[in-house]
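Notes to self after the call with IL:
- keep both proteins in one doc
- input above output, always
- annotate only the second one for now

Protein 1:
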Amino acid sequence: MQKSVLVGAIVALFATAALAQGASKPTDPQIAHIAYTAGEIDIAAAKQALAKSKNKEVIAFAQLMVRDHTAVNKQAVALVTKLHVTPVANPTSAALEQAAAKTRAELASLSGAAFDKAYVANEVAYHQTVNGALVDTLIPDAQNAELKSLLETGLKLLPAHEQHAEMLNKELGA
């Protein structure tokens, strides 16, 4: 898997979020869908790692990703239910899902240390990109204070994931 291609695709997806929304800022229902989709993508990647990896540190990291992203997504579902808001699929969330499917397929072709390195490198890049999207687009464009607060909660959690992935990346020699 070419890390630079994956990272470039993810960065382009988030960097052009406003363009994908028709040159307008994403709405709260679109932001909710993008954020939820990003969490689901990381949960799916972690589940793939749990099925493929034999490395104890990679498995522990993947378990953490499932636990934390599932918890945040449960909070997101509770919030949109409370607010009577239906998240709206949009070009950005659709593009994220397409890129994630491609990445999962590329990771599926790997095994052993090659899989572990590629999975963890992807996690570093993914968390860097999602953190940037939260800071640059999703939080500033969110209009509802409770949605903004939930996104800010994610921003407190995700840098720790990124640091953990970076440390693991170094341990794996990537």
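Protein 2 (the one to annotate):
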Amino acid sequence: MGDTYVQAYFHLVFAVQNRVALIQPIWKNDLEKYITGIVQNHNHKLIAIGTMPDYIHIFIGYNLNQKIPDLVELIKTSSNRWIKEKRLSKFKFSWQNGYGAFTHSHSQIDSVAKYVINQEAHHHKKTFREEYLEMLHNFNVEYKNEYLFNFFDEVEGWK
């Protein structure tokens, strides 16, 4: 039997519970390093990670031996516990239920990595809601509004 060769790239997106801006700049890089360790310890290749105060983008070369839901759950539960143990947030921290997982081709690696890394500049142009809905639309993902992340930026007086 011949060798089998597979390469897949996934762009993961998930948000802090209630979209509260709890991820502080002073420990954001440490969180990214911690999540990088989780990804790499499970034989995925971290390509880019972009953390904002209330959500995160993670772009990986995906190891097909682990299911995406299992990887996302591991990242969320481990990083949540790490944040609590380190007492990095003076408020209760947890990630929202759900996530987005989008595939990309090898030819898109550079553009997606730049997009993920440049989240802060990108969001001067679009809100997270606009960005996420655009991703769902571009990937033809059917969704129900009641199951989307909480998008408080559209609530009057929120900002």
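Annotation: The helical segments are 25-41, 68-85, 109-117, 119-122, 128-138. The chain is about 35% helix and 20% strand.
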